[in-house]
Amino acid sequence: MRVYVPLTLSGLAAAHRAGEVGPGPLTAYAVTPQLREWYVSDDIEELEYAALSRAAAASLRMIAGMPGEPRRRVVVAVDVPDGHAVADPDHSLDGSSLGEVRIASALALAKAAAVHVDADDAEKDVAAAAAALGAADLGDDDAQFTVDGAEDHELLWFGIQEIPHLIA
């Protein structure tokens, strides 16, 4: 099963130094039965993109809580054995946790399939989205429009060998 772990650039740097994403338990996103039902698609690529998008939104929330953090969303994609990522059945009807899974232990960074990161030109929109997140959560439509602006930026794909360049 492929899981998408939301991070920040400083979190990615820490994972690189440690050689692992962790410690556990970790919150990640994956193609769960609830995500399949919500997305109404059988196309695995579309479903994985939806899980990646959920992880990118979680990365934005992390960034919003860290004023000094660079304003670029980060998601690490890792393949884990079936059963290592577990969805919380108590959250199955909660729309905000669609695709959310828990992983009990740290994940070896060497096992990562890819790292997804915003391009430099997304920083302005990600910064605005992070600042507007609280108001959007309270139902402010203009703030939600600003948050959605960050989602207009596609995360770029990088191999794990490129992490040193990303965190430099």
Report on the structure:
Helices cover 41% and strands 21% of the residues. The mean pLDDT is 92. The strands form three sheets. Strands 1-4-8-9 form a four-stranded antiparallel beta sheet. It has six helices and nine strands; from the N terminus they run βαββααβββββααβα. The chain is an alpha+beta fold and 168 residues long.
Radius of gyration: 15 Å
Number of strands: 9
Beta fraction: 15-25%
Terminal CA distance reads 30 Å
- Mean pLDDT across all amino acids: 92
User: What's the arrangement of strands in the largest beta sheet?
Assistant: 1-4-8-9
Q: Helicity range of the residues?
A: 40-55%
Give the low-confidence spans: none
Q: Helices and strands: which structural class?
A: alpha+beta
Shape: globular
Helix and strand pattern: EHEEHHEEEEEHHEH
Biggest sheet descriptor:
4 strands, antiparallel
Number of helical segments with 4 or more residues: 6
Q: Layout of SSEs?
A:
Elements: E1 2-7, H1 9-18, E2 20-21, E3 26-29, H2 33-39, H3 44-64, E4 74-79, E5 85-86, E6 100-103, E7 107-108, E8 112-117, H4 123-137, H5 141-151, E9 156-158, H6 163-167
Antiparallel strand pairs: 1-4, 2-7, 3-6, 4-8, 5-6, 8-9
What is shown here, in short?
The protein contains 6 helices and 9 strands. By secondary structure, it is α+β, with helices and mostly antiparallel strands.
Key words describing this protein structure:
168 residues, single chain, three-stranded antiparallel β-sheet, four-stranded antiparallel β-sheet, 6 helices, 41% helix, 9 strands, globular, alpha+beta, 21% strand
